[in-house]
Amino acid sequence: MSTSSLPSRKAQILSHSEEYATSRPEWRNKAAFFHREDEAYLRFLIPENARVLEIGCGIGDTLAALKPAYGVGIDFSPALIDIARKRHPGLTFIVGDAEDPATIASAGGTFDYILVLDAIGSLDDCQKFLEQLHPLCTRETRVVIGYFSHLWQPVLKFAELIGQRMPLPPQNALAPADVAAIAQLADFESVKSEQRMLMPVSLFGLGHLLNRFISVLPVFRFFALRHYSVCRSWPAAKEDLKSATVVIPARNERGNIEPAVQRLPQFCDDIEIIFIEGHSKDGTFEEMERVKAAYPDKDIKLMRQPGKGKADAVFTAYDVARGDVLMILDADLTMPPEQLPKFWEAIKSGKGEFINGSRLVYPLEDDAMRFLNLIANKIFSYLFSWLLNQRYTDTLCGTKVMRRADYYRLRDGKAYFGDFDPFGDFDLIFGASKLNLKTIDLPIRYAARAYGETQISRFRHGVMLLRMVIFAFFKIKAI
């Protein structure tokens, strides 16, 4: 690619890339610890066997480390692409300017993930570049942007002076908020962001410990070297959803079965209701049979869960549900069925992909929630918002809504977390976070129970929630 027809800054960047191309593997070896730490988090965000496009791929090592089923790399430098093709013959590499629509179009098709790692620092117009990525995106596509904090600029320049970092031309100064703002202007919505890595060198193993356990903590993360933003294409966010399945797990809830059917609004044309009974002793299943016979105009299905716990009940029903959208409605009806249309609209509009009910915004009815439960819920909400990098005001509300297609993806990746949650709330929350789904906290009017007794033990389950925080820290944060 000739530099004569390029703007001066692009010509400078291309000349620099060509000059340092042959030594790029050596520079990567010098910074091997940094790249291992960087790629460890990228592998958390981008699972193996995905369709991945990397913009500014260099010699292709990071793309190869992600082990894509189909990987495409784009870079400005013919010399770098030549090296990439030799090092990674199983991947596809394209020479071109990432700000040229023809180059982006040459990538072909759509991708599960589009990785822009540091290349955003060399772009002339970041907004225009991002706008050109929409044709490569589906509703599930995530754009992952990784960059460095300019608080580290003096340290990085010093590393260049002493030969520990490859010299670079002047780079754009972009904080996480800048990335989110530019993405929004380009019709990409920020799903979540993370800051990590306090130590880019090993220091006999101390660097890894600092990066894993300290760099992600509040206050410390502000000083981290790396920041990552995960975005989704807003134009691709909306899908034509036509049907819903409302799963109602019930154990000793005989008095709430018929009210659940009577009070459920017809918020879409096709609603499937699945009652799944969990070893009741008050005739709940028999009441389900009576209600099903009494409402032949409703698509009501009855099941008995094979195991124990709400998670077993919900996922057993989800596995056979036919609706485009899956909803949980607790049989105690403390989340009033009349509010389900709001969940339907939130997901159908594309505004969210995982809709989580929040009981802690509006005033509670008398006796709806005990004081200690309320305090514990507030504390855990703050903790999980930090852990998941998305805002949660109530992790324990039973009503959670997602697409059936996303549930299948969550189920396929469930081995990452294992069977750890008897309620299923955190199976869904953690799974949605791992899939980088856009979460919305939807305030509901929480009502007092009209029939039966709560099956929650505040102290036993409080200990369980504390264990969930620790579990999430090691599985989602300290990686």
Quickly count the helices.
18
Q: Unreliable segments (pLDDT under 50, ≥5 consecutive)?
A: none
The beta-strand count equals 14
The largest sheet, given as strand count, sense and whether it forms a barrel, is: 7 strands, mixed
Strand order of the largest sheet: 3-2-1-4-5-7-6
- What is the average per-residue confidence, as pLDDT, rounded to a whole number? 91
Shape: elongated
Structural class: alpha/beta
Taking the alpha carbons of the first and last residues, their distance comes to 40 Å
Helical amount: 25-40%
Gyration radius from CA atoms, angstroms: 25 Å
Q: What is the strand content?
A: 15-25%
How would you summarize what this structure contains?
With 479 residues, the protein is of the alpha/beta class. The strands form two sheets. It has a seven-stranded mixed beta sheet, sandwiched between helices. It is elongated, with a radius of gyration of 25 Å.
Structure report:
By secondary structure, the chain is an alpha/beta fold. It is 38% helix and 18% strand. The protein contains 18 helices and 14 strands. It has helices spanning 8-20, 24-30, 32-45, 61-65, 78-87, 101-105, 126-131, 153-161, 176-185, 206-214, 257-263, 284-294, 310-318, 340-348, 371-388, 404-412, 425-434, 458-477; strands spanning 51-55, 70-75, 92-95, 113-117, 142-148, 188-196, 226-233, 243-250, 270-277, 299-304, 325-328, 354-358, 400-403, 439-443. Strands 3-2-1-4-5-7-6 form a seven-stranded mixed sheet, sandwiched between helices. A seven-stranded mixed sheet has the order 10-9-8-11-13-12-14, with helices on both faces. α12 (284-294) links the parallel β9 (270-277) and β10 (299-304). α15 runs parallel beside α18 (458-477) and α16 (404-412) crosses α17 (425-434). The longest helix has 20 residues, at 458-477. The protein is elongated. The model has no long low-confidence stretch (mean pLDDT 91).
